[in-house]
Amino acid sequence: MQSLIDEIAERAREVIGRGKVADYIPALAQIPSRKFGMAICGVEGGEYVTGDADETFSIQSISKVFTLILALQTIGSTALWKRVGREPSGNAFNSLVQLESEQGLPRNPFINAGAIVVTDAITAHSVSPILQLLGLVRRFSGTEQIYIDEVVARSEAEHGHRNAAIAHLLKSQGNLKARVEDVLAAYYRQCAIAMTCRDLARAFLPLANGGKQYETGEKLLTPLRAKRINSLLLTCGLYDGVGNFAFRVGLPAKSGVGGGIVAIIPGKYAICVWSPELDELGNSLAGTRALELFARKTRLSVF
Length: 303
Known about the structure:
This protein is about 45% helix and about 10% strand. It is α+β, with helices and mostly antiparallel strands. The chain has 2 domains: about 1-60 and about 195-300, DD-peptidase/beta-lactamase superfamily (Beta-lactamase); about 60-190, Beta-lactamase (3-Layer(aba) Sandwich), CATH 3.40.710. A hairpin with a 4-residue loop joins strand 7 and strand 8 (about 260-265).
C-alpha cells in the first residue's frame, strides 16, 4: 500500500499547474499550490501517508459532514429532514436560484444553503455550537489537536457576502431559527477548522466502519446512520461535479475548496487527499486524480 500511494502521489502531481487555488477567500489564496498529501486509514488497522499528509489545511466544506452528524444528534432526523432535502442540486454550491424557486428548502445538506440550515439547527440549540462541533471532530479523529484557523475564519467573514445573502433569504423564508449573525459566525468558523489528511482519514473512518471509532471501537454512529450519510456523500458530496466524480472514482466522498477530499470505501478504508488547486467546479484537481488512480489500481469502488 505504501509504494502504491507513493506512486499515485507522483502521478497526481503531474496535473498540478492546471487548476486554480480558491482566491475568493483571500486567506486560502496564500496556500502554496504545489502541496499534495494523501492518507489512508483502514478499518482493521494500518495507516499509510505520503507527501504533505501531516500538514494542516482548512477543511472548508468537508466540515459539513461533521455538522450534519451533530445536527442529527441534536434535533433528530425527522425534524432535520423537514428543513433540508436529500437530492443532488445540479447547481453551483453557492447558488441562490433553487433556494428562491423552491421556497427556502435547500436540496441537500452539503450545498451552502443546506449547510447553513444544518448549522442553524445546532446554533439554535446550543450556547457554544463550535465548541460542541470541535468536541465531536476530536472524538471522531481521536486527537485533541483539532483547532479553528481564526485567520481563515476572519477572511471568510469579511468576504462572505453570498453566504450572508443565502442566510438572509433562508431567514425571510422561515427556515432559519437563530439570528442570522450567530449562524453565519458559526458557519464561517466551522469551515475554518484546520486538520491534516491523517486527521481527516481517521475522523471519517467510522463511516467506513459501521459507525465505530477507528481506535477504541466506540460506537459513534448507528450502522444505518453511517450508511445514509455515505449515500448522501455519493450523490451530493461534490456538488455539481458529483456525477463525473462517481463516473471516474465511484466512491462516497466530500470535497472542500481548501483542496481536501475525503472518500469512503465501506468496510475497508477512509482516504483523504489534499491539493489546493481546484478544477472549475471547486474540487481538488490532483486530489480527484489521485482517488481515480487509487480506485482503478485497487479495483475498489462501490460499483
